[in-house]
Amino acid sequence: MAHGVHMFTQTLTPRLRDRVLRSSLVDLLTGPHGVDRYTELVAPTWTTGDARAKIVAVRRQTPRSVTLTLEPNRACPGLLAGFRAGQHINLTVEIDGRRRTRPYSPASAEGAPYIELTVGRHDGGLVSTYLYEHARPGMIVGLDSVGGEFVLPTQRPRRVLFVSGGSGITPVLSMLRTMRAEGSDRQIAFIHYARSAEEACYRAELEAMPGVKVLHGYTRATAGTDLDGRFGPEHLAAAMPNPDAVFVCGPPALVDAVREHCTNVSSESFVPPVFDVAAEASGGSVTFADSGVEVTDNGRPLLEQAEAAGLTPESGCRMGICHSCTRRKTSGVVKNLITGAVSSAEQEDVQICVSVPVGDVDIAL
Ligand SMILES: Cc1cc2nc3c(=O)[nH]c(=O)nc-3n(C[C@H](O)[C@H](O)[C@H](O)COP(=O)(O)OP(=O)(O)OC[C@H]3O[C@@H](n4cnc5c(N)ncnc54)[C@H](O)[C@@H]3O)c2cc1C
Prior knowledge:
Strand order of the largest sheet: 4-3-6-1-2-5
Helix content: 10-25%
Radius of gyration: 22 Å
Bound molecules: flavin-adenine dinucleotide
Shape: globular
Mean pLDDT: 87
């Protein structure tokens, strides 16, 4: 029967095939055999050995987010074994025939059998809008590259303050859920900022957590808010004065405010940094060899220079994390804006979202 599905889908246009593959009929036909076997048959490019997951539940907790429960396939345990609360994982979906990769931070605890992702919908955002509109049980997604330094220390701090804004709740919730699953006796406070009560993800779960002081700050509504305005000394005093450690994830302004008023802060932001580098333009020539395009270096990252020239290379996080923009540099010197490393090796792979030319550069793009 599944072979029949394969033969059938091969005769369809990519868009129609995608619709059929996402249909309940295909779920039913492929049901008892697990994810791996049939994704090999119906989507041969998702080769055996790749870590993949099946979406088994879709929840819309708020009007602008979608929460996905993922069941990992048999290639995932290796990938997930090292997952630590707060880290991120690359998720790949195929949209109109192109694979698109973005990093997402699981909200699930370390060691949980399922992965939970909450994706906030971005206006004009490709993958978040796609998942928000199309994610459904049975859909297969790709997973790879667990990583990140935003993690709890092995020796859990005695008094912990978690702070999050919007979809930045995911890694700190993972930390909180992990500590609770451990039966932690630590003192924990949690401040979450959202536009309004209805936009606050996980509100009911947080408010029902015994032993955790939870405060919500609504930035565009007064109803139900525990905190007025933006993070500052008053919010800190209300939640937990002088915490031993603070973990914050949210927009850069929230991270900056927490850093200003607290010590021992670990932070993450999902927003790419603004690189102020135009003044360092080398004026060299940048050749995107595969496309036959040559431009004069304007000091911006190679990804931006390619896009400004009308090219559409694959990209993801735009901050050197997900590696989906990696391209081969065939000659020349580049500087990595995150690490400051300057590399001149010929034939090396570079992340074009965070690499700027230092003189003439040839990129296979
Ligand atoms: C470590 C990490 C963890 C993350 N975890 C989560 C999470 O748990 N939940 C979550 O919701 N998100 C998370 N993100 C963000 C996520 O990876 C995506 O960035 C987000 O979902 C938007 O992706 P998108 O494809 O919808 O938007 P994209 O299409 O990538 O666009 C993103 C934004 O950039 C703009 N943009 C697009 N192309 C360009 C361009 N050429 N030039 C300038 N601007 C452009 C768009 O208008 C949009 O506002 C995380 C990010 C990182 C780095």
